[in-house]
Amino acid sequence: MPTGHAAIVYSQNRVVEALSNGVVTGKNDWNKSKNTCWGLYVTAGTENQAKKVADWCYSQRGKPYNIKYYDVNTRSKFYCSQLVWAGFKDKYNVDLNTSQYGAAVHPLELVSSDKTMILYKK
């Protein structure tokens, strides 16, 4: 399985992401700090809904990392792309999973979902 990482933009300077130490905020500098990066827009919703999803993800801070990638239904812990997926799924029933990796939600599935649009790619 290829690797990758996902986060949701929370503000101009911050993202919400799930790292090995759990759900945290990080710098919104991926376009500069990463070798490969996609910026996405969820087309199956509004900008206001996306902001509410980011707020929901922010409210998950402090929860531990989910190492059971196929357990996407838990909300007691998260891995990176599961966090973003769960926000849209739980708040607005927008499913960004393509099932390419079974039940697991891989970061590249967020890119290839028919419910997202690529804003930029590095």
Note the topology.
Elements (H helix, E strand, L loop, with lengths): L6 E3 L4 E6 L2 E6 L2 H4 L4 E5 L4 H12 L21 H13 L14 H6 L3 E6 L1
Antiparallel strand pairs: 1-2, 2-3, 4-5
Helix pairs in contact: 2-3
Structure description:
This protein is of the alpha+beta class. The chain has a single domain, classed as Alpha-Beta Complex (endopeptidase fold (from Nostoc punctiforme)), CATH 3.90.1720.10. 29% of the residues lie in helices and 21% in strands. It contains four helices and five strands. The strands form two sheets. The chain has a three-stranded antiparallel β-sheet with strand order 1-2-3. It is globular. The relative contact order is 0.23.
What name goes with the CATH superfamily?
A: endopeptidase domain like (from Nostoc punctiforme)
Query: Can you count the beta strands?
Result: 5
Q: How are the strands of the biggest sheet laid out side by side?
A: 1-2-3
- CATH names the topology as endopeptidase fold (from Nostoc punctiforme)
Order of helices and strands: EEEHEHHHE
> What is the beta-strand fraction?
15-25%
Q: Any idea how many domains?
A: 1
> Helix content range of the residues, please?
25-40%
pLDDT averaged residue by residue: 95
Distance between the termini: 21 Å
Query: What is the top-level CATH class?
Result: Alpha Beta
CATH architecture: Alpha-Beta Complex
Q: What low-confidence regions span 5 or more consecutive residues with pLDDT below 50? A: none
Q: DSSP helix count?
A: 4
| SS-based class | alpha+beta
Overall shape: globular
How is the biggest beta sheet arranged?
3 strands, antiparallel
Rg computed from alpha carbons, rounded to a whole number of angstroms: 13 Å
